[in-house]
Fold these 2 entries.
Entry 1:
Amino acid sequence: ETSADIDATAGCLTALGARIDFDGGVFRVVPIPRPVAGERTLAVGESGSTLRFMLPVACALGADASLTMAGRLPSRPLSPLYEELISHGCAISAPGYNPLRTSGQLTGGKYTIPGNISSQFISGLMFALPLLHGESRIKILGDIESKPYIDMTLAALKEFGVTVKPGRQMYGIAGNQQYASGRTVTVEGDWSNAAFWLCAGAVGSGEITVTGLSTDSLQGDKGVVDILERFGARVRRGGGSVTVSRGALKGIDIDAGDTPDLVPALAAVAAAAEGTTVFRNAGRLRIKESDRLKTVTETLAALGADIAETEDGLVVRGKPRLGGGTVSAHGDHRIAMAAAVVSSVCAGPVTIAGAEAVNKSYPGFFSDFTILGGNYKETT
Ligand SMILES: O=C(O)C1=C[C@@H](OP(=O)(O)O)[C@@H](O)[C@H](O)C1
Ligand SMILES: C=C(OP(=O)(O)O)C(=O)O
């Protein structure tokens, strides 16, 4: 099945002229014909990656486009991607404007992007710059956080015959490249979604097996397995599946710099592990669908956990059992899913207001929850 974010990306590509159909789990894509003439409206929804990938692509295609955003997206950072696109030939309405309008033709040259705001800026430029006539360089300032996502982008480009040359704090991109068409690719199982069930296995009372995972994946979030082992969970892996059950869980130290999306699920495990778990290097969680350091803290604390936010992380002191209660998903899919996972260590029921937030990345989340023995009912 797809999700709201995938549908948004497919919808934007369709708006630019691609022909896309989805049937039986298979996307068929006929590429965007060029030039892209006339005004186009791209509905990016609440998807940061869709916005930050499609804006540079629309600029590279020289499209006259309006990108409409939903939820918290208009206030999530777009600078300095935004300034770099303007200084390379595009006219774009000020960040925060909704819709965001772009016109003009992007040109090659040097693009400078700090590595610690969002890897999506860098991935978006990597998708777009090979389409330009001139050559380009992306210069990265400082360390890159969420680096595995950039490696996944590079692998996807390579699969379609597009070359990006990595250098020291720099990526070199020749112009006039063409994406190969007529390829068949298989999309890997999503470790970020799997992480919720693997964490549920670590705190719950039974064994949970997730299948369809590639252990040699480039996805940074496959690191959840090692982290759960460090917590003391029982883990078995092999043949594309991972099985997790509860062990004697002990608090640990976690650097979230490359795997920010794991933090909500891992915080649920930390809440049930004996001793203190510290999450570090997680400042970028404040600029996700919600301020996730704040919303993870509020959510778990409302259910009885001992948790505090720091400037760039969390400190969680585990308890054998939590209480239960009502929490808000804060419009954030990963908060809704983390609350459902933590319900397995709550004595009382957990009510999640706005649980439909899961549709952003995982519409089947609650039906999978029942397959694993969870009980839920929808209320209005
Ligand atoms: O490239 C991507 O699809 C993503 C990159 C990461 O974002 P940041 O680089 O902004 O941390 C990740 O958190 C996000 O959920 C998805
Ligand atoms: C992909 C995600 O969000 P976004 O693209 O909106 O940053 C996410 O949080 O999983």
Entry 2:
Amino acid sequence: MKMYEKAPAKINLMLDVLHKRADGFHEVEMIMTMVDLADRLELSELKRDSIIISSQAGYIPLDEKNLAFQAARLIKDRYNVRSGVHIHLDKRIPVAAGLAGGSSDAAATLRGLNRLWRLGIPAQELQELGAELGSDVPFCVTGGTALATGRGERLTPIASPPQCWVVLAKPPINVSTAEVYGRVRANNIAVHPSALRMQQAIEAGDFAAVCAGLGNVLEDVTLKLHPEVQQLKEAMMKLGADGVLMSGSGPTVFGLVSKQSKVARIYNGLRGFCKEVYAVRSLS
Ligand SMILES: C[C@](O)(CO)[C@H](O)COP(=O)(O)OP(=O)(O)OC[C@H]1O[C@@H](n2ccc(N)nc2=O)[C@H](O)[C@@H]1O
Ligand SMILES: Nc1ncnc2c1ncn2[C@@H]1O[C@H](COP(=O)(O)OP(=O)(O)OP(=O)(O)O)[C@@H](O)[C@H]1O
């Protein structure tokens, strides 16, 4: 038997860090939403008790370091599943980009294996399993748009932002999420973006207010480490995006664009700076 799952990328419309916790994680407040750029997973049942990962992408681990492998092992162990699975990952989300590609693959694996092995695990429990794999995984289990608190695993679903185009550009640099959080000084943040204001803008369907409310306190850290991310932001703004922000810990920069007529100009302009550029729709 085979199952198919789509694993969409996420962007953070706002991300605030409140304080560092005793367990080393940071207490955050984020509003996250999915975009129409997705990996595709094919999950095939194996009679023998093993987990095999394959992918057309040559640059991701295919062993137990892969988050989809970890998700399969977790669900197998926890529910005493004897059969195995072959997971083929058709990677389309850029890797180590701040778009939760690996987390979304893990979440899609949890959803897909729940169906493949007919385990009947409720969504809430799948999210709890996801939290064992990473802070972004619980959100990716259910997707949509949500306010995320705690270390990112406590979720309140909210309305979808107004439909728009999302132009994504990933510069060719590597950013470590742990390093970026490690450099945040939570009591020294000049301007905290407001989750409440963003939520109100979304609920009012006010695109201009959504753009005005974009904010990510991790930008300060990543932009200092990698000035090219700042240059990319400036280029996207000059090219006419309505709102521009770095996603997660970066380095991907996204621009929200309401008019389709502007998208080609922004996309083509950015291709001069950056090889990895995508123009996709927001997901409602
Ligand atoms: C930057 C975001 O992607 C925004 O959505 C997330 O906050 C990070 O999510 P993630 O990549 O799933 O993060 P995890 O794999 O759980 O953690 C990676 C590392 O980031 C740091 N980390 C992560 C989340 C958090 N709330 N506080 C942290 O300090 C920790 O050092 C941790 O060891
Ligand atoms: N299924 C996977 N897809 C992509 N990368 C994976 C996967 N499993 C493990 N990895 C590893 O995880 C690292 C981070 O990749 P990923 O694409 O998940 O980052 P990200 O988009 O920055 O995630 P986040 O936004 O959750 O911090 C990569 O260095 C990669 O080697």
